[in-house]
UniProtKB/TrEMBL annotation:
<dbReference type="InterPro" id="IPR036922">
    <property type="entry name" value="Rieske_2Fe-2S_sf"/>
</dbReference>
<comment type="pathway">
    <text>Amine and polyamine biosynthesis; betaine biosynthesis via choline pathway; betaine aldehyde from choline (monooxygenase route): step 1/1.</text>
</comment>
<feature type="domain" description="Rieske">
    <location>
        <begin position="119"/>
        <end position="226"/>
    </location>
</feature>
<dbReference type="Pfam" id="PF00848">
    <property type="entry name" value="Ring_hydroxyl_A"/>
</dbReference>
<dbReference type="GO" id="GO:0019133">
    <property type="term" value="F:choline monooxygenase activity"/>
</dbReference>
<keyword id="KW-0411">Iron-sulfur</keyword>
<dbReference type="GO" id="GO:0051537">
    <property type="term" value="F:2 iron, 2 sulfur cluster binding"/>
</dbReference>
<keyword id="KW-0479">Metal-binding</keyword>
<protein>
    <recommendedName>
        <fullName>Choline monooxygenase, chloroplastic</fullName>
        <ecNumber>1.14.15.7</ecNumber>
    </recommendedName>
</protein>
<comment type="function">
    <text>Catalyzes the first step of the osmoprotectant glycine betaine synthesis.</text>
</comment>
<dbReference type="InterPro" id="IPR001663">
    <property type="entry name" value="Rng_hydr_dOase-A"/>
</dbReference>
<dbReference type="InterPro" id="IPR015879">
    <property type="entry name" value="Ring_hydroxy_dOase_asu_C_dom"/>
</dbReference>
<dbReference type="Pfam" id="PF00355">
    <property type="entry name" value="Rieske"/>
</dbReference>
<keyword id="KW-0001">2Fe-2S</keyword>
<dbReference type="InterPro" id="IPR017941">
    <property type="entry name" value="Rieske_2Fe-2S"/>
</dbReference>
<dbReference type="GO" id="GO:0019285">
    <property type="term" value="P:glycine betaine biosynthetic process from choline"/>
</dbReference>
<keyword id="KW-0560">Oxidoreductase</keyword>
Length: 458
């Protein structure tokens, strides 16, 4: 196999910078490694030429080691990225190597190669329904703010002041402008810099060139998506049109957002996604109560590029608990996955969405948003959060209780899988071709993104 290096050469540049700094004398304007003045006198002590040479040699050695480690990391990632061939048919393919789920180096590359390219779901449309409404977040190290400007246009920006890099907004709310809490630089909701206090005397400064840095943003369905990669021109609306038609057929827009629940899972985020995409394979074993209400013979999976859809019909079994019927509903259930980490579950009178947010190589935050048909005429927008929780319909509380049980089972098995992936006894597995097609497609997309960061060695 040809050797490969990371196309984005920042790692090599960092190593070169270390060597350059070491060889150019990183010792200050006096040229000495150690300088000080005695009190009341003019005594100056400097390191001897020998001491300086030794110190410089040590720094050069450290920089060289860092450069070697960087190149080794590049080679390691390149090797692991190419260990799984996306062209091998699912019937013959192995699953990706365990290192994709356990290697800190692979995890580090996922931010720029997976999450900072393409559209990522970050919020709900009702969070920015009116002019001035905004919310903030972070996409694997990149802070963002999404806001509806005074003209009604949806905008997103890197949440970074152009002065000294402070965030210009926190949390969510409604504002007429974005004011940096550090030095008061003030930005209009369209990102333009309006006020830069006390900058008299500054040279070659153009306010028009110092607005907030924009991020691509769109509304699709009930959700907000951003795309940090400014060079991407993917039309998400066109790509997801078939899925939108399916969701519209379920009248999902009539459902109201009710609450958010967060779960921490001690596994790699891809383990959680794999579990979601196995075509219901695990349901009969892991979720026995839910399985009693599903007709496995009617379970289907469709793969469409960067998204997939799993659907199933319910059984005619009598329910021990009526709310369990709503996990499937008379019209069946739909489980949609949008690469890389967003899931939409539509069933009965309910809907929930899941976002698997990577925390570390072996820990994931799973964020659930719950939606349902509203009971009664309660004006929940005018209630406090505490009152809102008390006013949650009984059916929602029951649904969340059932969801908690299913989530506990998924978290438990995901954590066991992560432990197994760390074992020397496991490297790769196999697919069940008739049911794990969506998981296989997910791995193909990952492989494509990983290889995007590689190019043939020069």
């Amino acid at each position: 196999m040809r050797s490969v290096v990371v196309a984005r050469h920042e790692t090599r540049s960092r190593a070169t910078s270390l060597l350059d700094r070491a060889s150019s004398g990183l010792w200050g304007s006096q040229g000495g490694l150690f300088t000080h003045h005695a009190k009341g006198g003019h005594l100056r002590t400097t390191a001897s030429a020998t001491t300086k040479a030794r110190a410089s040699s040590r720094l050069l050695s450290t920089a060289a080691a860092a450069a070697t480690r960087t190149l080794n990391d590049d080679a390691l990632f390149a090797r692991e990225a190419h260990r799984w061939d996306p062209q091998v048919p699912i019937e013959r393919a192995t699953t990706p190597p365990a290192s994709w789920y356990t290697s800190p180096e692979v995890f580090r590359r996922e931010a720029p190669l997976v999450f900072h390219r393409g559209w990522q779901q970050v919020g709900r449309t009702e969070q920015v329904k009116d002019a001035g409404q905004y919310f903030t977040g972070e996409l694997l190290g990149e802070p963002y703010v999404v806001v509806r400007d005074q003209e009604g246009q949806l905008r997103a920006f890197f949440n970074v002041c152009r002065h000294h890099a402070s965030k210009v907004a926190t949390g969510e709310g409604c504002k007429s402008e974005l004011v940096c809490p550090y030095h008061g630089w003030t930005y209009q909701l369209d990102g333009r810099l309006r006020v830069a206090p006390r900058v008299g005397g500054i040279k070659e400064f153009k306010p028009k060139e110092n607005g907030l840095v924009p991020i691509q943003v769109i509304e699709w369905g009930r959700w907000i998506f951003i795309n940090i990669d400014s060079s991407s021109d993917t039309d998400l609306h066109e790509e997801l049109k078939p899925l939108e038609d399916v969701l519209e057929s379920t009248q999902y827009r009539k459902l109201e957002y009710m609450c958010t629940r967060n779960y921490k899972v001690k596994s790699n985020w891809k383990v959680y996604v794999d579990n979601y995409l196995d075509g219901g394979y695990h349901v009969s074993v892991l979720h026995k109560t839910l399985n009693a209400q599903l007709d496995a013979s009617q379970y289907s999976t469709q793969v469409h590029g960067r998204w997939s859809l799993q659907s199933c019909q319910g059984t005619n079994n009598q329910m021990e608990e009526q709310l369990l019927q709503e996990r499937v509903g008379k019209q069946g259930a739909h489980y949609a996955f949008l690469y890389p980490n967003f899931m939409i579950n539509r069933y009965g009178n309910l809907m929930d969405t899941n976002r698997a947010i990577p925390i570390s190589v072996d820990e994931t935050l799973v964020q659930f948003d719950y939606f349902m048909l509203k009971d009664g005429d309660t004006d929940q927008e005018n209630q406090t959060k505490k009152e809102m929780v008390k006013a949650l319909p009984e059916s929602l509380e029951a649904s969340i209780r059932i969801s908690d049980g299913i989530q506990d089972e998924d978290a438990w098995v995901s954590e066991m899988v992560q432990q197994g992936l760390n074992s020397r006894a496991y490297d790769v597995g196999r697919y069940a071709p008739q049911v794990e097609t969506a998981a296989y497609a997910f791995h193909q997309l990952l492989a494509s993104d990983f290889r995007h960061g590689l190019q043939p060695s020069q």
